[in-house]
Amino acid sequence: MKIVVYHAEECDRKKCTSLKLGRKGKFKIVSSLNQLPRGALVLNPFSEKAVSPEDRDMVLRRGIAALDCSWKKVKKSSVIFQTARNHRSLPFLVAANPTNYGKPCILSTAEAVAATLYIVGLKDIASDIMSYFKWGPHFLDLNRELLEAYSRAENSLEVVEIQKKFIGG
Ligand SMILES: C[S@@+](CC[C@H](N)C(=O)[O-])C[C@H]1O[C@@H](n2cnc3c(N)ncnc32)[C@H](O)[C@@H]1O
User: Fold this and answer.
1) DSSP assignment letter at 44
2) From atom 16 of ligand 1, which residue's Cα is the shortest distance away?
3) CA geometry: angle at 55 spanning 51 and 58, to 5°?
């Protein structure tokens, strides 16, 4: 499984989830956009299209790419979000990492990648990624009902419908 993270060097390196997974050999950390895998699913919080089980083949064959930068600095115009295709945002999920605990959609890179893997049906790999953090398994437990529902959707539109019903109560 190719998981490649473009690292913008804006974070506290001790707290950075992608650098930790890079050290464990789970993520490849790159500093040049040319090193991102072609055709990968790009995790972009500004994308209008949501991750769905339809993306499974793309994830298996091409991998996942993410941008690790400060949430304070991330912008629609961030360079990685301009260059690649196949951008996806994650539907409503709540962060469990200590920096943004309880905040919807403001996920760490590790949480975003694990959620993507879960939704496309690669649940064991999602659990493995989360197992490197004390709070990681809690992220999956906290969001289990929604992650399960998203993982049973047909496509991105259905994922958005599930999200709407959940937020609307
Ligand atoms: C802004 S960085 C923050 C990383 C943080 N410093 C850490 O240690 O994990 C998080 C990245 O994860 C992905 N991500 C997080 N939440 C997302 C969402 N709701 N939709 C799509 N991608 C998301 C994006 O690639 C985003 O740039």
Assistant:
1) -
2) 107
3) 130
| Cα gap 29→23, rounded to integer Å | 9
Q: What is the ipTM of this complex?
A: 0.98
Q: How far is the centre of ligand 1, averaged over its atoms, from the C-alpha of 108 (Å)?
A: 5
User: Does 19 score more than 70 pLDDT?
Assistant: yes
Instruction: Write out the residue range of the structural domain in which residue 33 sits.
Output: 3-167
- Give the Cα separation of 150 and 91 in Å (integer): 8
Angle between helices 156-167 and 144-151 in degrees, nearest 10: 150
Report the CATH number at residue 39. Answer: 3.40.1280
- Rounded Cα gap, residues 4 and 27, in angstroms: 6
The SS3 call for residue 119 is: helix
Whether 67 and 6 have beta carbons less than 8 Å apart is answered as: yes
Question: How many domains does the chain contain in total?
Answer: 1
Q: Report the pLDDT value the prediction gives residue 84, as an integer from 0 to 100.
A: 63
